[in-house]
Write a structure and sequence with these properties.
The complex is a heterodimer of chains A (247) and B (361).
Chain A: E1 2-11, E2 14-24, E3 29-33, H1 40-48, E4 53-62, E5 65-66, H2 72-77, E6 80-83, E7 90-94, H3 95-109, H4 117-131, H5 136-139, E8 141-142, H6 148-162, E9 166-170, H7 178-192, E10 198-203, E11 216-221, E12 224-229, H8 232-240, H9 242-246
Parallel strand pairs in A: 3-10, 3-11, 6-9, 9-10
Antiparallel strand pairs in A: 1-2, 1-4, 4-5, 7-8, 11-12
Helix pairs in contact in A: 4-6, 6-7
Chain B: H1 20-27, E1 49-53, E2 56-57, E3 67-72, E4 86-93, E5 102-121, E6 126-147, E7 152-159, E8 165-174, E9 179-186, E10 191-200, E11 206-215, E12 220-229, E13 235-244, E14 249-258, E15 266-275, E16 281-290, E17 296-304, H2 308-316, H3 321-337, H4 343-360
Parallel strand pairs in B: 1-5, 4-5, 5-6, 6-7, 6-8, 7-9, 8-10, 9-11, 10-12, 11-13, 12-14, 13-15, 14-16, 15-17
Antiparallel strand pairs in B: 1-2, 3-4
The chains are: A alpha/beta (247), B mainly beta (361).
Chain lengths: 247, 361
């Protein structure tokens, strides 16, 4: 479903990803773990299409298409979702306004008609309820004044509304208390654990993996995958530390 | 326009950002067929309507209600405002009176036109006036406003001329516990000068003048406002947003004056500029002149570009770059437009701003 080959990427002339290879099949959840500065977030941004990151070599194929040739919004329309480590606050634009416009833009590029305000609101409320987010927060400006946990729940509500084929979730577990962690984990399973979908979980810690069990765990160090294994690798990393496991 | 105009020059501090050349060119422009009809500019809300075509009252498109079309005698010392003399309109409301929203449409077809206006609200009277400017040429207006104790006026003005120049001079006196809220939107293709002198002359007076200027191409728009607090416990807000694209220039000068006697004044001044292109220019001049010692005056002035992180966030959810920029820019001017009390008017202004952004981005 997602195939990354020999990916090299740089920001401000500094190479961060140095020949990364990874393949996620449909129906699978892969976790990418690694120490700070390994290039985890860079991988998420490069796959999402953030313009400041320069791909210097390699290729990424998503659902049979050359992902790197697409603009960020085209990737979204193709079914890619990037969950942000630090969701951005956008004063003056309400969640519903933003998400309805985003969803309808995606639908339009797929040749589908727009959802009406009422249809959209029904969908948004159902997703907010499922994630334990107060419906009033749908009307508030995007992420403004939200706590860390609320922002992450909001990311999951967005994912539920947009219903992507593939989600790259960057440190979605950071800043979450245990209830929020559980809600977010359940959200990922409910929305994305399907035979025709895939997930790349980028995380520093093992705790989210207690709720979302990965099929494959990769260890990213200095811009490359240095080890891959089953879910037990995450437990080993947590116990032994990155230095030990990658030595 | 015949003869010479005695206009301010850039050497005068208060006019250093002004585009008097564009004003003169508009004044000397030939009349052309109108590019808009009054019915296209009236919002679908109840209430009196007045149309002025090239500064002349057009009764066929008007139902003036309580508004009188008459000669206005008051004079102004303002260099542009003093040119607006002769026949204009007057709204006088008695104590406690209220009207439906009054809409006034001004359409120019070339050359210059000048219209004076008076708004006089008696004690506790309330009114809302919406003005729209369209067409071309130079539209010059002087509006003198007098609010008696407890009176309330909401004034919403949109500058939508496709070309030419609009100059507005407001002179207002706000008495004890009275409230004046004026919101301006410059979203056309013309040059502009919005000029205000508001005197909060009674205890607890509330005065607000703000808005959004959107400029593109080689357009220049500016606002220059002075709020003078003469008595204690008054409050004022000046919330202005400037958005400039291409090589255009948007300028905002706002001053708050607090007299020695005007203790407990609460003034807020927020001037923010957004550059859509690095070749564009936003000038901000915030000024506070405070002689009282127990005063709260919050002020801020910033110029920046759209936040790249926010742009990417919106794009990553499926919005095109253009839509993401338009949405963020609309949010940027939203603060200023939100001050319009009536929903139908606020939404119409927001749509005008949205249309401008669709075209500019």
């Amino acid at each position: 479903m997602l195939k990354i080959e020999n990916l090299h990427a740089a920001i401000d002339g500094k190479e961060i990803l140095k020949g990364l290879n990874l393949e996620v099949a449909a129906g699978q959840v892969h976790a990418i773990m690694g120490p700070n500065g390994a290039g985890k977030s860079t991988l998420g941004y490069v796959l999402g299409g953030r313009p400041e990151y320069e791909v210097t070599d390699g290729s990424v194929t998503f659902a049979g298409e050359a992902l790197l040739d697409m603009e960020a919004h085209e990737r979204a329309a193709a079914g890619l979702f990037l969950g942000f480590q630090y969701p951005v606050e956008i004063p003056g634009i309400s969640n519903v306004q933003f998400l309805r416009e985003a969803l309808n833009a995606q639908r339009a590029s797929r040749g589908e008609g727009p959802l009406s305000g009422a249809e959209f609101l029904k969908l948004a409320r159902a997703q907010a309820d499922a994630l334990g987010m107060d419906q009033e927060m749908l009307k508030r400006p995007v992420n403004v004044g939200f706590s860390g946990g609320e922002k992450k729940r909001n990311e999951m509500v967005q994912m539920g509304i947009l219903d992507p084929k593939f989600a790259i979730l960057d440190e979605t577990d950071s800043g979450l208390d245990i209830d929020a962690l559980k809600a977010v984990g359940e959200g990922i399973n409910r929305i994305m654990r399907k035979p025709d979908k895939g997930v790349l979980l980028i995380t520093h810690y093992q705790r989210l993996l207690d709720y979302v069990e990965p099929d494959v765990v990769h260890v990213l160090v200095d811009g490359r995958i240095v080890r891959s294994g089953g879910p037990e690798l995450a437990v080993e990393l947590e116990r032994e530390g990155y230095a030990e496991v990658t030595a | 326009m015949t003869g010479t105009l005695d206009l301010p020059t850039k050497r005068q501090e208060a006019w250093k950002w002004s585009d008097m050349a564009a004003l003169e060119a508009a004044a000397r422009s030939d009349h052309t067929a109108p590019d808009v009809v009054p019915s296209a500019l009236f919002l679908d809300i109840e209430g009196p309507r007045l149309a002025f075509i090239d500064g002349v009252f057009d009764p066929t498109h008007s139902r003036p209600g309580p508004v009188q079309v008459t000669a206005i005698g008051e004079a102004s010392e303002h260099p542009l405002g003093r040119l607006a003399a002769g026949e204009g309109w007057r709204l006088s409301l008695d104590k406690g009176a209220a009207t439906e929203t009054i809409q006034i449409v001004h359409i120019g077809t070339g050359a210059d036109n000048h219209v004076p206006a008076r708004i006089e609200l008696g004690e506790d009277a309330t009114a809302s006036v919406v003005e729209s400017y369209a067409g071309t040429g130079w539209a010059n207006r002087l509006t003198q406003i007098s609010l008696a104790r407890g009176a309330r006026l909401m004034r919403s003005v949109r500058l939508m001329q496709s070309a030419g120049f609009v100059s507005i001079r407001d002179e207002a006196n706000v008495a004890e516990a009275a409230s004046l809220v004026s919101v301006f939107l410059g979203a056309g293709g013309m040059g502009s000068r919005i000029d205000g002198a508001i005197r909060a002359s009674g205890t607890g007076a509330y005065a607000e003048m703000g808005g959004a200027l959107l400029t593109r191409g080689e357009q220049r728009q500016e606002a220059a406002v002075v709020v003078d607090h003469a008595e204690p416990e008054g409050s004022s807000r000046q919330i202005w947003r400037a958005v400039a694209a291409d090589t255009s220039v948007a300028s905002l000068a706002a001053r708050v004056e607090v007299k020695r006697h005007a203790q407990k004044t609460d003034g807020e001044q927020s001037l923010r500029g957004l550059l859509l292109d690095r070749t564009a220019q936003v000038n901000l001049k915030p000024e506070l002149e405070i002689f009282a010692d127990d005063v709260k005056c919050a002020h801020g002035a910033t110029v920046g570009e759209l936040d790249k992180r926010a742009l990417f966030y919106l794009e990553s959810r499926g919005l095109s770059k253009g839509r993401a920029r338009a949405l963020l820019t609309r949010a940027f001017v939203g603060d200023a437009m939100d001050r319009i009390g009536e929903e139908a008017v606020r939404e119409a202004f927001a749509e005008d701003a949205g249309r401008w952004l669709e075209a500019a981005l």
